[in-house]
Design goal:
Length: about 190
């Protein structure tokens, strides 16, 4: 019985040593490669000569995302960027026309025009605006059920040098008077006649 225990122990020991040796020999080259990549850049700027020979940038460092500005890019210029409706009665929809020009050298493409809430609806040209030409964005505000002051923004996304542009509308909706559909004094049909 003791011989069986010894054989089992030796077999387990040999299996463990064999497994450990196989694991160590299989990962050693990978660890060395990782070490050489991890330590190839110590975080300091060593000048152009060191940068040229140090290989690719490590993944953890951010790449420069600054692009050179396109001197020919479309330029979206509004005649006005904000409009005040002042006081308006509750009920009707009100609309303002924002006029703009493309003062750049490439066609201007408005890819999206989005209002800050559902009570404001923009409409815009879907075709490109050629250099030197004008366009309009119509902004409609629904006053129904919205008494009080308002200030809404509209974000324009385009291929212009300033890719996101914000315009706004504001004003104050004056609450509508409730209609008097029932007369104040109405004779009762059940009341006795004099």
């Amino acid at each position: 019985m003791t011989i069986m225990k010894k054989l089992l122990s030796i077999t387990l020991l040999l299996a463990y040593v064999g497994f450990a040796t196989a694991q160590t020999s299989g990962t050693t080259p990978k660890k060395e490669e990782t070490k050489s990549v991890d330590h190839s850049h110590d975080g300091h700027n060593h000048g152009p000569a060191a940068t040229a020979t140090s290989g690719p940038e490590p993944k953890g460092e951010p790449k420069s995302e600054e692009k050179a500005p396109n001197p020919n890019a479309a330029k979206l210029i509004f005649k006005e960027e904000s409009y005040n409706f002042t006081e308006i009665p509750e009920g009707p929809q009100v609309t303002h026309e924002f006029k703009f020009s493309n003062t750049g050298k490439e066609p201007l493409i408005l890819s999206n025009v989005r209002a800050s809430c559902g009570c404001t609806t923009p409409s815009w040209p879907k075709e490109p605006i050629l250099p030197g030409k004008d366009g309009t964005i119509l902004v409609t505000y629904n006053t129904q059920g919205r008494p009080g002051a308002f200030n809404k923004t509209i974000t324009i996304t385009s291929n212009a040098d300033e890719s996101n542009k914000v315009i706004s509308i504001k004003g104050e909706v004056i609450k509508a008077e409730p209609e008097k559909s029932v007369p104040l004094e109405q004779p009762s049909l059940l009341a006795p006649k004099n």
